[in-house]
Every structure is written in structure tokens, then in C-alpha cells.
Amino acid sequence: MNEKDIQSIQQLLATPKKIAIIPHRSPDGDAMGSTLGLYHFLLKMNHQPTVIAPNDFPDFLAWLPASETVLIYENDREKSTAILLEAELVFTLDFNALHRTGEMENVLNKLTAPMIMIDHHELPGTYAAYTYSDTSFGSTCEMIYNFIGFLNQKALIDKTIATCLYTGIMTDSGQFRYPKTTGTTHRIVAEFIDLGVENTEIPTLLFDNNSFDRMQLLGRALQNMTVFPEHKTAYTSLSQKELDEFNYVKGDTEGIVNQGLTIKGIVFAAIFIEHRDENIIKISFRSQGSFDVNKFAREHFNGGGHINAAGGKSYDSLEKTIKKFEQLVQKITL
Questions:
Q1: If residue 186 lies in a helix (H) or strand (E), which one and from where to where?
Q2: Model pTM greater than 0.85?
């Protein structure tokens, strides 16, 4: 973000405004951490911010400060639309193409208020008046920390803001294991801990509050695991019937795809999840090293993301989608 843009944003934020803050559809820890972190920051600057999520977020993020104030567009389209139309400024965080908001895209395309995009994914769109896009960052939350610094307002970061940003940094970095976790990342996290962030409790809130059904679902996914040792690839799948059998709720499949990468010699992992209500197969890809799952997802499965973490979707049946994947795996060299 250049100095001219920063000065313009400082002018925009110099007087109290109604501000909408938008994460992507099916928001994860980074999306919710960045939007709520920014929400608390803007409150301290005397603005009137509202976080509007396209759809609901997982229960394991419901402890985040002010998560109860988040409007869910799918649950209250009328109120959400009214707030968006009244907004004087709109932040879009952790995504860079409006279609990532699902049905909300129709409303966002009609807005005349300036938009500010803060995101770390590849190929940013051009819809925003101001864009802070940098793929070298492991999380949007780390970028929000920098953004607050650009505004010379780091003194406003308190335990509440730091807790939100810490959550997104930790989840999007794979608990500080992914390659984009830098020394700077750790120094920022150290600042947050010094502010009182409960760094020993947050992982428990996020990862250790599993229901019995969720553990059973994980067990089924592990039973369904298929491994291609010669192609250093592992994948698993969950059908709608299996989701129903274990009383699936949003967030229950979070992280399962990473199990494939824990197998010795595997560098490429995937999970295919059937959602009949949407007539879609949702796919997550993960890799280790230089294999680019972002490129793989974009070229073959209507998706994208990062080099080592990406998502996709298929409108074919679960069986056809998996067969296509297996055929593609036979052709790649890892």
C-alpha cells in the first residue's frame, strides 16, 4: 500500500463513519479474526463498524470477542442489505473477488461507498478503491496489524484486538508451521502475548473442544483415506450420508485434510466433501514443499488459494470428482 493511499485512508477515517466489514463466505479463523480485530480497532477510533458475514461461521470461533454482534447475511438479508447500503466505507478482508461472498455479491456490486481490500491471496480483483494485497503474508490478520501500523495507530492495539489477530495468525499458519511463518510473525505474536493474549488457552478453544460426533466423523474420514505412495498423494472423502450419520455441523471437517500430510512420504493431500443441499462437492487441497495446489485447484477444480493450501469445488458426483482427481494424480510428478 503506497503512501498516497495511506493518506487518503487516514482522511477517510478522520471523522466517525458507518463502516461495513466483510469476510468471505464460510469464514475461517483468519477471516473472523481479521474482521473482528478491525471491528474493535475501528470502535476505538469512534466509528460505527458492523461485521457482516455471508453465512455462518463455525462454533469453535464463537468465543471471539464480539462474535455475537456479527450479522449473518443468509439469516437476515433485509437488515444486512440496509446496513451495506448505508455504509460510508466498506472493508473486504481475506478475499479478493466479490464472488467469494456468495449471494452478497449482488448487493456489494451496487454499493457506491469506497471499498478497501486487505488480502493475501493471488490474483486480486480490481473492485476496491484501495488495495493492500501481498501474497508473501501467511494471514490477513498479520496484514491488519501492519495496516494499523500504516495509520500510526499501533498504540490502540489492546488485548481484545490482539486476541482476534492472534487467532487468525495461528490458524492460517497451521499453528506456526507453514512456510510463510516468519521471524516477524513471531515478533508480532510476542507483542500480543505481552498484551495479555491467552496463548495457551486459545488452541484449546479452537482445537480441543470436539464433540463425540466430530471425532467419529474424523475416524470415518481416516478409514476412507486412499494413498498413492508412488505419487506422494493421499486423499479422503465424506459423503452426505456419512455427514448425516455423524450429525455434521459447520466446522466439523476443519483440518481433516491435513491428516494426509502426516503420512510419511506424502506431499499432496485432498479431501472431497459432498453437500447435496448445494449440489456441490467441496474440496480442500494441502501440500508440502513446492507443489502448487493453488495452480492445481484453479486449473482443474474451479478454485484457488495459496501455494500450499487451496480449495475447489465440483458439480459432478462425488464418484466422478474423485475419479477425475485420481486420473490427474497419475499425470503429475511430485
A1: helix 183-194
A2: yes
